[in-house]
Design a protein that fits this description.
Length: 388
């Protein structure tokens, strides 16, 4: 029994001695290769930092989409869009929303409501993760960009909003505030644009109303100057008179032809019929001269001038009515909710820390450290060979 104990002790002492020997050999190799030694030390320190010191970061996520409430103005559905998905319908609104959420204005609102700087600069946070020095809003904004991401999913057409904080409550509050402020921004921007359109339309309505009044006044002035209410109606009346005279002339010519068969040419009846026909011809010529003539001032010229003035008045009135209808629609658009933010996934309260990825970061740091050290070692060897 005593012999077995002594054998165990001897094997243990030999194992300790061999381990000590290997450690000495390892350190001697590191001394001969200072770059690898530096990489080894850096790897140990960084691994200790990632595994034991780095503060937990909680991530709250929300998924939103910007939609228009003006259903009447939407275009007819496209078969290609139905099969492939409408990935560009509200792309501009989504990207504008993304830029706003990542803007300084959004950071300022979060700072005013949630005190971002106080949260991110707590002493309980590790020195490499916390906001150590924020001498200006620019420093806080750069840190804010590292802790907030807003990605646009091209296929689904939604915005994915993520906010990082050092406790779950703060992460959820940040995401909730961003979603609420984003909805307010989109609707206010749309209402502001509609209000600008209303102001423009109001000016157009005033100008077109004045134009319509001037055009109508021109028509009335023309009627008063020519002492005629409707040249077209007057021309129709003259045409009716001419038609009646032509009919009477035809009757007299028939009588003249029938009487000439048994009466002499200078008979009083024939003379009277010829006199009446001549008078009708003169009256027809007079009425025709009222309708048209080479010197102007006739009813056809008056009717043409009146038609131009009346058409201009009607056109001005139609423009005024169109602008007035557009103004009424714009006033409604400027007061209602034009764009709304639909929340597909509400901001969540994180159950556990998602960041940092301690094992992954440790492995990446180790690989990079030894890779850089190997490259530098190779460069040193090349330089030494060239010197020799």
């Amino acid at each position: 029994m005593t012999t077995r104990i002594e054998d165990g002790r001897s094997r243990a002492s030999r194992g300790v001695a061999s381990a000590r020997t290997r450690a000495i050999e390892f350190w001697s190799r590191l001394r001969r290769q200072p770059l690898m030694a530096a990489a080894f030390v850096f790897s140990l320190v960084s691994t200790f930092y990632w595994l034991a010191i780095a503060s937990d970061r909680y991530v709250s996520e929300a998924r939103v989409v910007v939609q228009k409430t003006d259903l009447a103005a939407t275009a007819a559905p496209d078969l290609g869009a139905l099969l492939l998905g409408d990935m560009t319908g509200n792309r501009s609104d989504q990207l504008m929303m993304r830029e706003h959420l990542l803007s300084r204005d959004m950071m300022t609102k979060l700072e005013d409501q949630l005190s971002l700087e106080d949260h991110y600069s707590q002493w309980s946070i590790d020195p490499f993760s916390r906001l150590a020095f924020a001498n200006s809003r620019n420093d806080l904004y750069e840190y804010y960009q590292d802790r907030v991401t807003v990605e646009f999913d091209e296929y689904a057409g939604v915005l994915v909003v993520r906010a990082q904080a050092f406790n779950p409550e703060m992460a959820e509050a940040m995401t909730t505030t961003m979603v609420e402020e984003g909805a307010s921004f989109m609707n206010s921007s749309a209402n502001q644009l509609a209000q600008e359109q209303v102001e423009f339309l109001r000016g157009q309505v005033d100008a077109l109303e004045a134009r319509a009044r001037e055009a109508r006044q021109a028509v009335i002035s023309f009627q008063n100057r020519e002492r005629i209410a409707s040249p077209e109606a007057q021309a129709q009346t003259v045409a009716t008179v001419i038609a009646q005279l032509e009919a009477r002339k035809s009757e007299l010519q028939v009588q003249l032809a029938s009487q000439s068969a048994f009466l002499v040419d200078d008979h009083p009846i024939l003379v009277e019929l010829r006199r009446q026909i001549a008078a009708i011809d003169r009256q027809i010529a007079t009425q025709n001269s009222r309708l048209a003539g080479p010197r102007g001032g006739t009813l056809n010229t008056t009717m043409e001038q009146f038609a131009i003035l009346e058409a201009d008045a009607k056109f001005a009135e139609e423009l005024y009515r169109t602008a007035l209808a557009a103004l009424e629609k714009g006033q409604v658009e400027s007061t209602r909710t034009i764009k709304t933010l639909s929340v597909i996934q509400q901001p969540n309260l994180p159950d556990e820390a998602e960041l940092p990825d301690r094992l992954r970061n440790s492995l990446v740091t180790i690989i990079l450290a030894f890779l850089i050290a190997g490259v530098l070692q190779l460069l040193v060897m090349i330089i030494r060979d060239h010197r020799d």
